[in-house]
Amino acid sequence: MPAYIISDVTAKDAEAFQIYRTRAAASIAHYGGRYLVRGGPIEQLEGDWSPQALVIVEFPDIERAKAWYGSSEYATALDIRDKALGRNLILVEGVSRAT
Q1: CA-to-CA distance for 44 and 47, rounded, in angstroms?
Q2: Is a pLDDT exceeding 60 seen at residue 98?
Q3: In terms of Cα–Cα distance, which of 60, 61, 39 is closest to 51?
Q4: Model's pTM, two decimal places?
Q5: Strands across the sheet with 3-11, in order?
Q6: Which residues form the domain of 72?
Q7: Is residue 59 in a domain?
Q8: Residues 40-58: pLDDT tens digits?
Q9: Average confidence (pLDDT) over 4-20
């Protein structure tokens, strides 16, 4: 069953953000993740939530998503995260693709 990392991101430092983004992308690919959303226009339809940028990454399953988040590969991105961005980050399990 797929799992999703959903991140509400606010960039702080453009140069650091690019470094973070490059490192994070490489680590995500290494763990079988793929970007479904990586920024882009947001249209608020209901409620008070007003994110500036959303990132949604799909992993094959929740175990791979957790392995990525705790990995040494992703730790290289985390080294610069606080300078690069502020965010809210959640992990959610998807639904079965069976018909």
Answers
A1: 8
A2: yes
A3: 39
A4: 0.91
A5: 34-38, 53-59, 3-11, 85-93
A6: 3-42+51-93
A7: yes
A8: 999 999 999 989 899 999 9
A9: 96
Residue 37 within a domain: yes
Q: Please return the burial class of 25, using the count of CB atoms within 10 Å of its CB with bins 0-12, 13-18 and 19+.
A: middle
pLDDT at residue 99 greater than cutoff 80 = no
With respect to residue 98, please indicate whether it lies within any of the assigned structural domains. no
Alpha-carbon distance of 99 to 80, in angstroms, equals 42
What is the C-alpha to C-alpha distance for residues 12 and 34, in angstroms, rounded to an integer?
24
**What mean pLDDT, rounded, does the chain reach?**
95
Total domain count, the chain: 1
- CATH number, residue 57: 3.30.70.100
Using CA atoms in the order 93, 91, 58, 98, what is the torsion angle rounded to 10 degrees?
Answer: 0
**Rounded to whole angstroms, how far apart are CA atoms 62 and 41?**
28
Flag whether 99 is in a domain. Answer: no
